[in-house]
Known about the structure:
Chain A is mainly alpha-helical. In chain A, 73% of the residues lie in helices and 1% in strands. Chain A has one domain. Chain B is built from 24 helices and five strands. Strand 1 (59-60) of chain A pairs parallel with strand 3 of chain B, so a sheet runs across the interface.
Amino acid sequence: MISTYGMAAILIYLVCSPFVASILSGVDRVVTARMQGRRGPSVMQAWWDLLKLFGKESTSVNDIQKILVAAHCFFAVFSGAIFFGGGDLLLVFFSLTMAEVFLILAAYSVNAAYSEIGAQRELLQMMAYEPMLLLTSVGFYLSTGSFAVSDIIRTDIPLICKMPGFFIGLCFILVIKLRKSPFDLATSHHAHQEIIKGLTGDLSGRIYGVSELAELYEEILMLGMAGLFFITSDPVSIVWALIAVAVVMFAMSLIDNVFPRVKWELLLRYSWLVTFFAGGTNLMVLLLQAKGL
Amino acid sequence: MLYLAFLIIFPFVVAAVLMCIKTDSVLRTAVVVSGAAAEIVAAVFFSVAHKAWVPPVSYAYLSHTGNIDKLIAVCEVLLMLLVFSQAIRFRKYYILLLSALGTIPVLWLDVTGAGESTSAHIYVDSLTVIMVLVVGIVGSLICIYAVGYIKDYHSHHTDVKDRSGYFLAMLFVFMGAMMGLISSNNLSWMYFFWEITSVCSFLLIGYSRTQEAVTNSFRALWMNLLGGCGFMAAILFSVLIVETHDLMGLLKFYKIPEIMVFPVSMLAFAAITKSAQMPFSRWLLGAMVAPTPTSALLHSATMVKAGVYLLLRLSPMMYGTLPGIMVTAIGGFTFFAASLLAISVSDGKKILAYSTISNLGLITATAGCGVKSAMWAGIMLLIFHAVTKSVMFMSVGAYENSTGSRDVEDMHGMIVRIPKLAFVMTIGIFGMSVVPLGMCVAKWAALRGFIDSGNAYLVMFLCFGSASTLFYWVKWLGKIFSVSKDSVRQEDRVRKTEWTAIYPLTFTAVALCFVYPFISSSVLVPYINNAAFAGEGAVFEASITTGDYILMGIMIVCMCLLPVAMRIVNIKQDRRVLSYMSGFNTGDDRSFYDSRGERVQQHLSNWYMQDIFGEKKILVPSLVISATFILIMMSLSAVGGLFI
C-alpha cells in the first residue's frame, strides 16, 4: 500500500518537521527584522521558544481543552503523514479540516470572549481558504488523473505549467494558512492584541506548546503542497521545488511586512474572488482539455 | 410480493386504528410502537427474502389490476374532494384549479380506459430495497418518537387542540404512501401515492391551525400540486404519445431520444418541487411550524426523498440533456445558496431546514449528471442524509421539549447540562459535516462525479458550498461545547419513547460509517453497472479505494477513542486557571469588571453575519435567479417536446 519511499518520507516528516519549521520561522523573523532595519533574534529562537513551552507546567481552564488540543495536533500530523506518504490529496485536506475543527472547539470550550471571537475568526478564515484548497486538489486530479500524491509526482513536466491559476490561488491562501498579515485574523505571529490571538489566548504552558507543534507540522505540509507544483519524476526537480518554496516563503515575509491587517469582510471577499477567478478559469481550461478540445 | 403488500397496506391499517383512539393511552402507545416495529421487521424481511439487493436481480408484479385501478380512481376523487373542502374552508380558491388540473386528466385516462396497462405495476430492484429500508427503519422510528413528543407538545402548547390520534395516523399514512411510491412502476400509481404525500404533508404542516401554520401549509400544498401538474403532464404525454405506462418503460430509452425530453423534464420538475429545490424551497422552511416529528419525517425519510428518488431513477437518461442541465444547475445552485443562508439563522430547526435543502440540492445535482460515479454518490448521500438528519431533528425536538427553546444560542454548554442529548447531537453534526463520516464521504464521491461529468460550475458550487456548510455546523458544535464554569446537569426530561427512537438511529448513523464500503461493493456498484445503466458505458468502480477506507477507519476509531482518552489524561488534573478576560475576570469565569469597576455578566454569541448572508440579502435574488432559469428551461422543453 505505502511504498518504502513513502514510509521513509513519513518518518522524515514526523521527526524533522518541528525542527525544520522552527528554523524556517527563525529565518523568517531575521528576514523580517532586516526589512524593518533591526537585527532580529537568533535563527534558533523559535526552536528554543518551543522547547521552553514544553518545560512549563500545563494549566487549563477545563477538562476538555487539553484533549481537544491533542486531537488537533494528532490530526494535523496525520494529514501531513498522508501527504508525504503519497496518499490521497482529498483525504489530506479533510483530515486537515478535522484538525482545525478540534482547535476551534478547544477555543469554544473555554467560554471566554477572546477565545470565542478567535474561534469565529478562525472559522471564517477556514471558510475563506477551503474552496481554494479543495479546488487545488481537483486541479491536480485533472492534470494527472489521480488524487494520490504518489501518482502526482510521477508527472513529466512540472505541474505549474498546467495549473498556474491554482498556484496563484494557493499562494493567496497560504498567507492565511501561514498566519501572515494581511490575513492573520485569528492567530497572528505578532501577538500584540487579544483579538487576533484569541484562538490560542486561553492555551498556556505545555498545552500551548502542543498547539504550536501542530502549527509547525501544518506549515511543512502547506509548503509541501506548494512544492508539489514543481516536482516531477526527475529527482533533480526536488531542488527546483525547494528553491520555489524558498521564494514563496520570502514572498510571504514581504507581504507580511508590507500590508496592514484587513477586516474579515475583505478577507472573505478577496479570497473567494481569487479562488473564483484564478482557480475557476484554470479549472475550465483543464476540463476542456480533458474533454479533448 | 406478500411483504411488499404488507409494507404498503399495513401503515394505512394502523392509521385507521389510530384515528379511532382519540385520547392518549397506553393502548395508543402500544399500537404505534407495535405498528412501527412490525413495519421495520417487514422491511428487513422483505429485503432479505427477495434477494433483490443482489443486482441486477429485479422483480415485476401485478400486470392485471382491474379492481385495484378502480379503487385507486375512487381514492383519487376522494383526495381531490378533501383538498377542495380545505381550499373552500380557508378560501384559497387557486388550490381548486391546481388540484382539478392535476387530477381530472388522470381520471379521464382511467375512465376511458386509455390508461389501462398490462405491464407490471410494481417493480422491485436494489434501489427499491434501499429505499424500503430507509423509509421503513427511519420512518418507523420517527413514528415511535412522535408518541412521546406529541404528549409534551400539547403540554407546552395548550392553545392547540389535541388531535394527536389524527397526527399519529397521518404519520403512518405518510409512510404507507411512501412505500407505495417507491415500489410503483406504473406512472399513474406512482402519481397517486405522490399526491397522497403532498396532501398528507399539507395536513401535517397545518396541524396546529394557527394562522402561520395555515399559510405555510397552503404554500406547501400549492407548490406540490404544481409539481403534481408536471407529473400529470408527463403521464399524459407518455401514455398518449410514447405509449408507455410505466417508469421502466421510460427508462429503457437509455440515451434519451428527442421525444422523451418533454416527459422527463416534467417529471424532473415535479421532483424539484417535491425536493424543495429553489425556487420551491420555501415550503420546506414553512414546514418548520409543524410539530418536530413532521419535520423529521418530511426532511429525512419521506417527502423530499421522494423527489430525489425519482431523479435518481431518471439519472441514467440525464447525461448532457436539457432536463439534465436543468436538474444539475438547479441542484448545484440550491446547494450553494442554501448553505450560505444557513449561516445567518440561529433557530435550530431553520438551520436544519436550510441544510436539508442544501443537501438535497447536492443529491439533485448528482442525479442530473447522469454519470455512474455521481449516481453512486447520490444514493450514498440519500442514505446518510436520511439517518443523520433524523437524528438531528429528533435531538433538537427533544431539546426544545426539555428546555423550551430550540435556538442554537440557547444550546450554550449543553454538553454539561444535558450530556446524553449533546452527545447524540455531536454525532449528528459530525456526521453531517466532518470527513471520515457519512455525508462528507459521499460529498467526496460527488466531487469525483462532477469532475467525471465535466461540469466546472458544479465543482465550483461544491467547493464553495462545502466551505460554508462547515461554517454553520462548526459554530453550532462550538455552542454545545462552550461551557460556562460550574454549570450543573439538568434533569433529563426526554421521554422513553423518544430515546427508543434516538438511540437506534444514532447507532445506525455511526455503524453506517463502518459498513458502507460493503453496501457499496455488494449492492451499489453492481447495481449501477448492470441494472441502472444496463451494462452500458465503462465499468464503474467505487472511487474511494481500500487504502482510503483504512485511513478513514483509523480516523473514525481515533475520534471514538476521544472520550476515553479524556478520562485517561485527566487522571492527573492540571492546575485550574481562570479564562482570560484582560485581567478583569471577577473570578467566576462568567462576568468581568467594566471600566467603572462594575460587575458585568458576559454574554457570548455566535456570528450570523446578517449583512452578508442574511435572508433579506440572499433569499430573494436566489429565488428570482432560479425561478427565471427553471422557467426558461421548462419553456424550452415544452416547445421542443410538443412542437418539434
